[in-house]
Design a protein that fits this description.
215 residues, 9-stranded mixed beta sheet, TIM Barrel, single chain, alpha/beta, 30% helix
Length: 215
């Protein structure tokens, strides 16, 4: 039986001056709300410090995507918000013991624990913990900025991960729209992060519905 597919709008592409209104516009139609936390070092951009995220009011479960050099430190801070999920990048935590410790700390903090891989990173680079994570995020763009073009080559990693772990939550982030969404789901993804496609649409409900209908 096919796994249900979740839609997680990323507020990185939202209008920051109208953030509360932007979030309300997608709440009835989305499953999760993704918060991209960036330190300006792991990626060449900064976004969503804890103080700003603390002001967000939403009925949606929060999905915290840590694009930072010191994810353990950030995870401790953001777990205070009681998120649904916290994901860190494999490229930022390369030692197996450190990865396992962070996965354990995230779960102890009450969230599910995910690991993300950038387009150049292979599944073999996370073979040490892939069987232990709650979520695998396969980036389909190089992280840091919204609105980038989808990198189709990463779909092979999704297929491989789905074959190895039939029940794993596999999330894809980057260039997701009504055209690329079915490619992702066909490969095995069951959690789609979309930013520009949703927040640049005049009708957010229609945009999210088009993602669901394309699946």
């Amino acid at each position: 039986m096919a796994l249900p597919v979740l839609i997680a709008p990323s507020i990185l592409s939202a209008d920051m001056k109208r953030l509360s209104e932007e979030i309300r516009s997608i709440e009835p139609f989305a499953d999760w709300l993704q918060i991209d936390v960036m330190d300006g070092r792991f990626v060449p951009n900064t976004a969503f410090p804890l103080a700003q995220v603390q002001t967000i009011r939403t009925t949606l479960p929060l999905d915290i995507h840590l694009m930072v050099e010191q994810p353990a430190e950030y995870a401790r801070e953001f777990l205070s918000l009681h998120p649904k999920n916290v994901t860190f990048h494999a490229e930022a935590v390369q030692k197996t013991d450190d990865r396992r410790a962070l996965l354990q700390a995230i779960r102890k903090g009450g969230a599910t624990a995910g690991i993300a891989i950038n387009p150049p990173t292979s599944l073999s680079d996370i073979a040490d913990v892939l069987g232990e994570v709650d979520l695998l995020l396969v980036m389909s763009v190089n992280p840091g900025f919204g609105g980038q073009a989808f990198i189709a080559d990463v779909l092979s990693k999704v297929k491989e991960a789905r074959t190895q772990f039939p029940q794993l939550m596999i999330q894809m982030d980057g260039g997701i729209d009504a055209t690329t969404a079915p490619l992702c789901v066909s490969a095995g993804a069951n959690n789609l992060v979309a930013g520009s496609f949703i927040f640049r649409a005049a009708d957010r409900a229609k945009a999210i519905a088009s993602l669901r209908s394309s699946i």
